[in-house]
Amino acid sequence: MAEALAGAALLTPATVPIGFMLSTGLFAAFSVIILSLIRRGREIACSCFGSRGAAPMGRPHLVRAVALSLAAASCLVTTLLGVTISFDDYVTPVPWVGGLALALVSIRIEDVAYVFGRPEQTAK
């Protein structure tokens, strides 16, 4: 529910700072929870982004949550500072394409970790 509220707040200019605040707080909370699970050795399956995978939460999930928290925080800071981007600029597609690529990697972080992981770590 909180994720939906944060996303909805990002749809209108007047509530964008609130949306970024909520997003930053949510991803920071997710980071703390995942770190706590890792430290206690608890293996809980990740349902991130609607996945039904059996992979337990681990370092890749922590990296993703921290990265998303930092991204939301940087968006919040730039919004509060009044930084704007002109959509008339010819380089506008560059950050959109880069953001889309990072989003796809972030959503499929378990697969990326499996491909680049050591065999003994991925054989579980």
Write structural notes for this entry.
By secondary structure, this protein is mostly helical. The protein has one domain (2-122). The protein has helices at 2-9, 16-40, 59-80, 93-107, 109-116, 119-122. Mean pLDDT is 78; it is low at 120-124.
Reconstruct the topology from this structure:
Layout: H1 2-9, H2 16-40, H3 59-80, H4 93-107, H5 109-116, H6 119-122
Q: Percent range for helical residues?
A: 55-70%
Largest beta-sheet characterization: none
Indicate the overall shape.
globular
Straight-line N-to-C gap: 33 Å
Q: Could you name the ranges where pLDDT drops below 50 across 5 or more consecutive residues?
A: 120-124
Q: How would you state the average pLDDT, rounded?
A: 78
Number of separate helices:
6
Radius of gyration: 17 Å
